[in-house]
Specification:
- The structure is a single chain.
- With 532 residues, this protein is α/β, with parallel strands linked by helices.
- The protein has four domains: 38 residues, no CATH class; 162 residues, 3-Layer(aba) Sandwich (Rossmann fold), CATH 3.40.50; 181 residues, Rossmann fold (3-Layer(aba) Sandwich), CATH 3.40.50.720; 76 residues, no CATH class.
- Helices cover 45% and strands 10% of the residues.
- It has 24 helices and 14 strands.
- Strands 8-7-6-9-10-11-14 form a seven-stranded mixed sheet, sandwiched between helices.
- Helix 10 links the parallel strand 2 and strand 3.
- The longest helix has 21 residues.
Length: 532
């Protein structure tokens, strides 16, 4: 049994001045702590006061990261009890700045790094990770971090942040979580020229070398952590699709940018029908941006249309794309494979002209290009719709296609607005709008939790469809009245539990679960969930 300073230096054991007099005697802490004994709530209040005194969100990020490394229970209790305030700090938008500055602000070592130098030894070096029962791995290669591009090893902030959300939002114990960067180099010259850069200081490997390294990693995980879910995060679109298609039916894995984003967006679209009073099967949807996020949303929407008894051809006819080169049409010669199913027989045109021609009910932005939903775009959407639905999903906030204020002002209060990063409530003509945030945190923690509980063999599209429908059903009438297409983040644990239940039930109905169905699924999940 650890004693004395070893206890205080162990983030899983350390409770600081919360230790009782009896515990201090038992663990040899007498004299190592001041006299006072306080409650966890008191210590959390003290910490939050200090956090709010910090001059910037990046300073708050650093303070929270430090707390996570020295007092895990207090960190997660603080996150949970202040989720709306802290989520934008530990994840979007602040995590973007944290990734850009990762090599300059990194203190305690966090996460696991795999480089080309480790080829042939990945299984062996995984033994260096102290925890052996890993249930969730979030891995990135840092090539497309949010809308910020290639950040190489600095992308470690993303797996760390995602796994915090797994533990805080869905109660997966932190000891079961492993953040990994596949550090295969970077093509970002600014990073390569930075003497403080902590990553593999070479240009990116690609092709067979890259794919072989990923394959070795996946096989090593199956050997070392056979119960682990692998979440691919922030890979460049071609690699994201290549890896998802290669492994989705082989191992327990998914790509959150493609599939998690899709489930959150579809949930918002379902909820929007309660405002627009248009049935889902009648919707026409136009995407601006044709990368992995946008096409992932479209792919799940096709599955949802088919589930409503439309043919695949009929489903695809509801979905249109535009990108930097205009409307995605069959005559174009610059399309990637994942775009081609959505290329229609139509003349080429720009976004505003496409809005007038297609008359979409919903406009979804996933461009990473700020300001692309101009006043002209919003006004044209408002002209053809009584309640235009606008999704500006690009992260971080600086990359949003438009702001909440712009959407509401330019539409004269008619827009139903969703963003990827948080926006404050906005008052217009005597009405207070609460913009919904299409945050993946609504779904991926619950999907992961459900997959772990039932022992899913792999994760099919049906899981994401189930998650989207469950999330949409949790949107209250009060949310709708405030113009929000998502429930309050304060209910995130309840939301994750309900999504996990839906995933378990779907897995058993599809015969994809390896674990026997218990009499009381809810009780089993609740008992598993980490309580800090």
């Amino acid at each position: 049994m650890k004693k004395g300073l070893d206890v205080l230096r162990d983030k899983q054991l350390n409770k600081s001045i919360i230790f009782t007099k009896e515990e201090r005697k038992k663990y040899g802490l007498q004299g190592l702590l001041p006299y006072a004994v306080v409650s966890q709530k008191q210590l959390m209040i003290r910490f939050m006061e200090m956090l709010r005194r910090q001059p910037s969100d990046i300073d708050r990020y650093i303070i929270l990261s430090s707390l996570q490394e020295r007092n895990e229970s207090l960190f997660y209790r603080t996150v949970l009890d202040n989720i709306k305030e802290i989520l934008p700090i530990i994840y979007t938008p602040t995590v973007g700045e944290a990734c850009r500055k990762f090599s300059h602000i990194a203190r305690e070592p966090k996460g696991f790094f795999i480089t080309p130098d480790d080829k042939g030894n990945i299984s062996r070096i995984l033994d260096n990770w102290p925890e052996k029962d890993i249930r969730v791995i979030v891995i990135t290669d840092g090539q497309r971090i949010l809308g910020l591009g290639d950040l190489g090893a600095n992308g470690m902030g993303i797996p760390i942040g995602k796994l915090v959300l797994y533990s805080a939002c869905a109660g997966i114990p932190p000891k079961h979580c492993l953040p990994i960067v596949l550090d295969v180099g970077t093509n970002n010259k600014e990073l390569l020229d930075d003497i403080l850069y902590l990553g593999y200081p070479h240009k990116r490997i690609d092709g067979k070398l890259y794919l072989d390294l990923v394959e070795e990693f996946v096989l090593a995980v199956q050997k070392k952590y056979p119960n682990a879910l692998i979440q691919f995060e922030d890979f460049l679109t071609p690699n994201a699709y290549a890896l998802l298609n290669k492994y989705r039916n082989r191992v327990l894995c998914f790509n959150d940018d493609i599939q998690g984003t899709a489930a959150v967006a579809l949930a918002g679209v379902y909820a929007s029908t309660r405002i627009t009073e248009l049935p889902y099967t009648c919707l026409r949807i136009l995407f601006l941006g044709a990368g992995s996020a946008a096409t992932g949303i479209a792919d799940l929407m096709v599955a949802a249309f088919i589930d409503e008894r439309l043919s695949r051809e009929e489903a695809v006819a509801h979905l249109w794309f535009a990108d930097i080169n205009g409307l995605v049409v069959k005559s174009r010669t610059d399309l990637m494979e994942h775009n081609k199913p959505y290329a229609h027989e139509h003349k080429a045109m720009g976004l505003v002209e496409a809005i007038d021609a297609i008359k979409p009910h919903i406009l979804i932005g996933a461009t990473g290009a700020p300001g692309t939903f101009t006043k002209d775009v919003i006004e044209h959407m408002t002209t053809i719709n009584k309640r235009p639905v606008i999704f500006a999903l690009s992260n971080p906030t600086s990359k949003a296609e438009c702001t909440a204020e712009q959407a509401y002002t330019w539409s004269k209060g008619k827009a139903v607005f969703v963003s990827g990063s948080p926006f404050s409530s906005f008052h217009f003509n005597g009405f207070s709008f609460r913009p919904g945030q299409g945050n993946n945190a609504y779904v991926f923690p619950g999907i992961g939790l459900g997959a772990i509980i039932c022992g899913a063999r792999y994760i099919p599209d049906e899981f994401f469809l189930a998650a989207a429908r469950t999330l949409a059903q949790l949107v209250t009438q009060q949310d709708i009245n405030e113009g929000s297409l998502y429930p309050s983040l304060e209910d995130i644990r309840k939301i994750s539990l309900e999504i996990a239940l839906s995933i378990c039930r779907k897995a058993w109905s599809l015969k994809l679960a390896t674990k026997k169905r218990p009499e009381n699924i809810r009780k089993v999940i609740t008992k598993f969930m980490y309580n800090p």
